[in-house]
Amino acid sequence: MAEARQQGGGQQTGTDRPREGGVGAVDRYFQITERGSSFATEIRGGLVTFVTMAYIVILNPIILTSGVDVEGNTLAFPAVSAVTALTAGVMTILFGVVSRLPFGFAAGLGINAFLAFSVVGQVTWPEAMAIVVINGVLIVLLAATGLRRMIFDAVPVELKLAITVGIGLFIAFIGFVNAGFVTSTGQSSPPVGLGIGGSVVTIPTLIFVVTLVLTGVLVAAKVKGGLLIGLVSGTVISVIVEAIWHLGPRAGEDGGVANPGGWGLTVPELGSAPFGLPDLSLVGAVSFDLSRVGVVTVVMLVFTLLFTNFFDAMGTMTGLSREAGLADEKGNFPRLKSALVVEGIGAIAGGATSASSNTVFIESGAGIGEGARTGFANLVTGALFLLAMFFTPLTQIVPTEVAAAALVIVGALMMAQIKHIDLGDFRVLLPVFLTAAVMPMTYSIANGIGAGFVAWVLVHALSGRARSIHWLLWVVAAGFVVFFARGPIEALFGA
């Protein structure tokens, strides 16, 4: 079935059929006719990809502005929204031109959560973005030398999938907390509970539930742009509710909870204008002075970011190329090395603009489903992202509770990868479980990845399967042991 779809997906009929012999240099460069596509099909596919990805212009600033750095600073919502659109537009176009593949780029979910909830607790935002840039440089070097593919093949597929599952659970948990659906009880047991006093009693949290159900139905019905439609619908409902009841913000002037029934981070009120010049003040806001943290900490932060970026992108590209019918039986696709190099440049660009590491988006599959087969579709998607920069004032009215519903949906979609893991062997089950469970429970992606890798090596080695462990896994596990013991190690060496 899948093979038939891939073979037939590029065939066009009627007005979509390209003129025999090609339509010029652009057609030949992007191989539009050669891949059985047409300009009309590529434009339509690029538009659909943008619609399914556009939510990131709202969701990325929601996540990044939630993070308070070590000096108590936060990022400005309109500025993050603007650079999110800018970087996504530039990188999507660059990837399309260089790799000639229809894969859209934007700030990676999971990576931005790692920055907001783990990294900036130890460094400032400019320093955190410097770590992203360093991560990108390493990815480019690994891709250019061919080491990236070798490392990817060395790590068991179960651990790769477990990382995605764990990040999904982590993102969903953040959504529940941001919506007020899960709250702290202030007690040692149980530490968290449902809403207020075990009930959903506030209107913002109720709107979260409504938005979650609505978006879930749209996604289940495979409505293109379902996530974006859910975000917009929930926001419209919130604006109407605020106009009628004037709930106001939850926090008081001192930062405490002055109005328990109010909105979280954003009050959904219409501004004076829906569009304006983009705030690009975050472009270049990077500091490579990382002296405030120890060397071991910096290395492990870069390593964890690299690992998260590394496997998510490789897996996504392989899956999309298969869906487009462009991959061989081994998962290789045209211009593989150049695609991986540009993906690393996406991390560098994301750090340099404070948009977080940019990577390929699985939502590009929607455009591929519409027939996109070449990088020309990326020109359309990228141009629309650049246009979206001028409408970033609209993103400021999206309340946290509505964005939280999108986080839960995305988390559920990421968790679905667990179906590809055979959990019949406990040697596999325990590391996978630890990877997925430790992330949300410790509020750290790094801790989850580390627990999973160390457990995989130890359980396999001590149960007679030492020879099945690739030597690179031993290196990675040893690195995470150092990571978990970094406090005593830094104190010992005065780092």
Would you kindly provide a brief summary of this structure?
With 495 residues, this protein is mainly α.
Question: What is the N-to-C order of secondary-structure elements (H for helix, E for strand)?
Answer: HHHHHEHHHHEEHHHHEHHHHHHH
Output the number of helix runs: 20
N→C terminal distance: 57 Å
Helix content: 55-70%
Q: Biggest β-sheet, characterized?
A: 2 strands, antiparallel
> Over all CA atoms, what is the radius of gyration?
23 Å
The poorly predicted ranges are 1-22
Into which percentage range does the β-strand content fall? under 5%
Per the principal axes of the C-alpha atoms, what is the gross shape?
Answer: globular
What's the structural domain tally? Answer: 1
Overall mean confidence score, pLDDT: 84
Number of DSSP strand runs = 4
Structural class: mainly alpha
Describe the strand arrangement of the main beta sheet, using strand numbers: 1-4
Give the SSE map.
Blueprint (H helix, E strand, L loop, with lengths): L1 H7 L16 H6 L8 H15 L2 H9 L12 H23 L5 E3 L3 H7 L7 H21 L1 H8 L2 H22 L3 E3 L7 E3 L8 H18 L5 H20 L49 H29 L12 H17 L5 E3 L3 H6 L6 H13 L11 H16 L10 H17 L2 H18 L8 H14 L1 H8 L2
Antiparallel strand pairs: 1-4, 2-3
